[in-house]
Every structure is written in C-alpha cells, then in structure tokens.
Amino acid sequence: MTANIAPIIPAEFPELQALAWNRDVARPIPAEEAFALYERNWRFVDQKRLTAREKLLIMKLADEFGHGILLTTS
C-alpha cells in the first residue's frame, strides 16, 4: 500500500517523540513506521497529553494503515 501521508517528524508530536526516544526525533520517519510505533507502544502513550493535532494524526494513520482501527492492549 502506498501511503498518502507524508513522512512524520516525531519531534512535532509530544507522545510520538517520547516513543521514538532512541532515534533522532528531528529526522522524518515514514508514516507507516509512526503508526507501528503508536500501535506497538500504545501502553506508554499518555492519552491525557495528546494534543488535538496528534490525535488527528493517529486517526489518519489508523485510517491509512489500520483500516480505521488502532490495535491497543489497554
């Protein structure tokens, strides 16, 4: 599947930045990789800290790569 979402800079999204702690957060990552980070590490996401912009990003990623669903364990 070809993503319609441009690469994402983790530093622009607080919770994604926290999930990408072991990477250069200023370096863009593919949207599908960002989706995988959110989905795989959702238990570490502080949902109260999600900005409106980051929530929208997560929804777009779920629509594009998860058929509208973000699989979480919590």
Any overview of this molecule?
It comes from Mesorhizobium australafricanum. The chain is mostly helical. The protein has one domain (10-65). 41% of the residues lie in helices and 0% in strands. It contains three helices and no strands. The protein has helices spanning 14-19, 31-40, 52-65. It starts with 13 loop residues before the first helix and ends in a 9-residue tail after the last helix. The relative contact order is 0.22.
Which value, in Å, is the CA radius of gyration?
11 Å
Q: H/E element string?
A: HHH
Give the total of domains. 1
Structural class label: mainly alpha
Protein name: Aminopeptidase
Key attributes of the depicted protein:
globular; Aminopeptidase
Helices and strands in order:
Layout: H1 14-19, H2 31-40, H3 52-65
Helix pairs in contact: 2-3
Protein name: Aminopeptidase
Brief sketch in words of this structure:
This protein has 3 helices and no strands.
